[in-house]
Amino acid sequence: MTGQLLRYTSPSTPDQFAPRFSQIATFMRVPVAETIGEADIGLFGVPWDGALTNRPGTRHGPREVRNQSTLMRAINHATRINPFELARIRDMGDVPFTRMFEVEASHDEIEAFAAMLVAENVLPLAIGGDHSVTLPLLRAIAKEPVALIHIDAHADTTDSFQGSKFNHGAPFRRATEEGLIDPAKTIQIGIRGTQNTSDGWDFSASAGMRVVFCEELHDRGPQAIADEARALVGDTPVYLTYDIDSLDPVYAPGTGTPEIGGMTTHQAQVLLRGLRHLNYVGADLVEVSPPFDTGNVTSLAGAALAYEILCLLAEVRAGSATGKED
C-alpha cells in the first residue's frame, strides 16, 4: 500500500470541505447530535403530511432538503454571517412517528420532540412536512403568546376542512384560539390566490393580524415589508414560519398548493435578510414536496432559505448567553 494512510472519520461529523456530492447528508453538513444538550440550534425533520388538503408528498421534504443543503457553504455573501462559527448547530434527526395515520396523535409526537429540545435550551429549526406541523411546534415553544412572522401564499386561518380542525390550512386559527400567538404582533406576508370563501382572510383581519398580500409586497418591495415586520414585532419573542409556496411556482413547483404571482427567490432572500436581530424562539420551513419538483429546484430553494433562517437564528443566539461551553 502506497500513499498517505487514511484515518477513519465518523460519518456523524461531516467534513465541510469535502466534495458536495460525498458523505452522508445532514442538514447543512452539520454534525449529527449525540446528545440534545450539545446543540445551541437544532435542525430536525418533520416528515409528515397527514393534514394536506391538496397534493401530497411533503413527507419527503426533509430528506430532499437535507440532500440539497449539502450545497450550502459557510459564509453568507450578503451579510457575511457564518452561522457555524456563531453557534453549535446540530442535526437532531427526524421526529419519530408511531401513529402517523392519526392527525392529533402525530401532532402530539411533534410537540413532544420539540419540547425535548426546548427543555435543553436548544433553539429549534424544523423542516417539514405540511404546514399543520407548525401548530404543535408552537405548542412546545410558546409558554406565552409569541409574535409570528408568517411567510406564505395562504393565510392558513381557515376553519375545519372535511371534518378536520387541524388541516394544513388552519394552524394559525388554532394557534390564535389556543393563545399561542399574539395576533396583534402577527404579520402574514405574500398572501395571494383565489379562494372559495374569504373566511381565512376575514379571520386574520378580525383577529388583528397584519396581512400583506403579494401585490403590496411587489409594489413596496421586500425590504420595506421586512422593516414593517421588525417594527411590529419589536423585542417580543417571535416565531418565524416559512412556507415554500410563498415563492412563485416558477421557483417552487414542488409544493402542495402552488399559486402564481409569488415572490422570486431573490425577493425571499432580501425579505429574510431584513429580519435580523429579532428575539427568535424558533422557526420552520415547510411544504416542500419533492414528488412534484422539477430538477430539485424547490428543494434547493428550501435548503437555501433554511440557511438564511439559520443565519438569523445563529446571529441572535450568539448574542445571548446560553450557559453552554464547548
Task: Describe the 3D structure.
This protein is of the alpha/beta class and 326 residues long. The chain has a single domain (27-318), classed as Arginase, Chain A, CATH 3.40.800.10. It has 10 helices and 8 strands. Strands 2-1-3-8-7-4-5-6 form an 8-stranded parallel sheet, with helices on both faces. β5 (181-191), α6 (199-207) and β6 form a beta-alpha-beta unit. α3 packs parallel to α4 (134-141) and α4 (134-141) packs parallel to α5. The longest helix has 22 residues, at 297-318. The protein is globular and about 65 Å long. The N and C termini lie far apart (38 Å). Belongs to the arginase family. Agmatinase subfamily. This is Agmatinase.
Which tags fit this structure?
single chain; 326 residues; alpha/beta; Arginase, Chain A; 8-stranded parallel sheet; 10 helices; 8 strands; 16% strand; disordered C terminus
Task: Summarize the topology.
Layout: E1 41-46, H1 61-69, H2 83-86, E2 89-94, H3 103-119, E3 123-128, H4 134-141, E4 146-151, H5 171-177, E5 181-191, H6 199-207, E6 210-213, H7 214-220, H8 222-233, E7 238-243, H9 265-273, E8 280-286, H10 297-318
Parallel strand pairs: 1-2, 1-3, 3-8, 4-5, 4-7, 5-6, 7-8
GO molecular function, one term: agmatinase activity
Pfam family, one: Arginase
Cofactor: Mn(2+)
